[in-house]
Amino acid sequence: MEYLERPADPLSDVLVLLKPVSYFAGGFVVPDGTAVSWPKHSGIKCYAVISGQCWLTVETVPGPVLLSDGDCFLLPRGLPFSLSTDLSLTPMDFFSFKDSLKALMAPAPPENGGRYIVGGYFGVTGGPAEELLSALPPIVHIRKETDKTTMRWSLECMRQELTSPQPGGKIIAQQLAYMMLVQALRLHMAEGAKGGVGWFFALADKQMNSAIAAMHDQPGYPWTLQSLAQSVGMSRSAFAQRFKQTVGSTPMEYLTRWRMLLAADRLKRTSDSVSSIALSLAYDSESAFSKACRRVMGCSPRSSRNQNDALPPSSPKGHEAVPLY
What we know:
- α4 packs antiparallel against α5 (169-192), α8 (225-231) crosses α9 (236-247) and α11 crosses α12.
- A six-stranded antiparallel β-sheet has the order 10-6-3-9-1-11. The chain has a five-stranded mixed β-sheet with strand order 5-4-7-2-8.
- The relative contact order is 0.15.
- The protein is an alpha+beta fold.
- The chain is built from 13 helices and eleven strands.
- The chain folds into two domains: 10-192, Jelly Rolls, CATH 2.60.120.280; 199-306, Homeodomain-like (Arc Repressor Mutant, subunit A, Orthogonal Bundle), CATH 1.10.10.60.
């Protein structure tokens, strides 16, 4: 049997490193004349409006955002937010008032009024989660008609699973919600190609994507600025300049950071020795690796191994954690 080589895919690499788990996947209603607020949360919330319109307000973000049919939105930084049908209303706290909100957690769209929203809430348990998610804005809003068309299949499948429950529907809904998340990140990445700065947006640049993929695929290779430039068919100076402009750091800074993120992950989930991890990431000695770890991560490798993950292993109240990686 012949196997095809896996195409370079830095976005998948990062999502795996985040170790997402599904805490909630389903639909809920924001009834007419309602405003609901949610507190600060860990992880990512990804939702789409199936019917109706409502306002999204996120703490520290100036001005509300109008959400319409087919719009998708991600909240990757865990900031408090509210959804309301009328901006003049005072939001009710979700956890205090959810029992009194008629049909809030609903399996199907309301027949007479209300805004029906589907999606999921994902915890990220990888140690570098906060740093990786900080590359995203407080709100990722997918609203272009062409982007909505791209999202439509997963949204319609989600609606079908919620309105006509079948055996295994819970798992399918969780996977569809995760698909929505990845699709939304893809679309946001493509939009950022028009001027966004950061590793995430750099993935939309073919040559920068190839350079990042090379570093991800072979983090233990003794990369130099020259060899990275040659791998994408660019001169050293042109490559260095464009990488800095699109990613926001130099190629070698990015490589060191990626190696440290991989090292932190291995230190937490394996019993591999510090010296073996150092050698696998192209460090000639444990002392050189430890020095880089202190400089980049702010602690020694052994201290990193003893630190807690970004999220506790327990799920938020009322949610069951389901690994998605």
